[in-house]
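#struct-help
A.M.: can someone run this one for me? Single chain, 359 residues.
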Amino acid sequence: MIDNAYGYRLVEPGRPLVRHELPPLEPGPAEVVVEVAGCGVCHTDVSFAVDGVPTRHPLPLVLGHEISGRVVLAGDGAGEWLDRAVIVPAVVPCGNCPTCAAGRPTICKDQFMPGNHGDGGFATHVRVPANGLCAVPDELPEGVTLEMLSVVADAVTTPLEAIRRAGLTSDDVAVFVGVGGVGGFGVQVAAAMGAAVAAVDIDQDRLELASNHGAALALDAARKNLKEIKTAVREFAGASGRKGIGLKIFETSGTPAGQETAYALLGPGSHLAVVGFTPKKVELRLSNLMAFDARAEGNWGSSPECYPQALEMILAGKVKLEPYVEFFPLDEAPSVLEGVAEHRLRRRAILVPSKEARS
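D.P.: on it. Structure tokens below:
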């Protein structure tokens, strides 16, 4: 039993997170308690805390769904995980229902998302189902730490899932609209798969980072209008020599402007992946999907089956984490979440509990 754990709870949207001493943590059957090494701060957390998007579990609730750490307690049926370093899936399916059997685990009705269906990783410890845990080697390559691997749980695997569903190959041209955390990792994954990759953003620093990590074309949407962006992408696709049918477009900005731009890039046979989230509405002509014989698809996180592939790409050096992340003490959680909401942080924030707080 862990009896000295604490976390930062959302009590009410629009109010700062509040430190809370957690009740003693003990795993039930098929559950584990993870000592948190790091927990990424995602814009989904901002949606809960600022935009008022309701959590599945009533407030108050400890937020945080990008979790890495070490299993310190294991319940019946989960003993093989004890003392192992792990990444906790952002969406943990039950694995037994008809939806899971049909290969759609991310819409499992009995899924568990830390920081949504129950307390999450803005804490020293978290209790989660053992199903879908991704084992992490104890020895990691230089420049990779267990703390930074927390972002695998959403920021890396969610675009990987979108890329997988798009059927991306080395014959394709991929366009990422919004290349912050999720989009930046998506650029790297697509480039590692051999695709020709274009990046679109309004932030020059993000575009430069994307150019250094897989993007062969970087377009500043703050300086180019939509017509110029469409022309540049079309010329890039033509010059790439790729023989794939239709652009693979990934909306990873989570903004109305980004979604409008991504939709406008549709052409014959295109695939549009909606990865970013915004509660705001956009106005689109849906008939473009019919006219271009195109597809649009969203994905809620990713299947835990994607996690080992994402981890292997990182361990092999094909996807770099360090340039895209920065670390903050757990006790700065309220101000860090505020900074993410106000777009003041340049990298993906990861909260790290102090060693003194760990068991």
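A.M.: thanks! The domain at 6-154+302-357 is CATH 3.90.180.10 (Quinone Oxidoreductase; Chain A, domain 1).
D.P.: also worth noting: The two ends are 10 Å apart (CA to CA).
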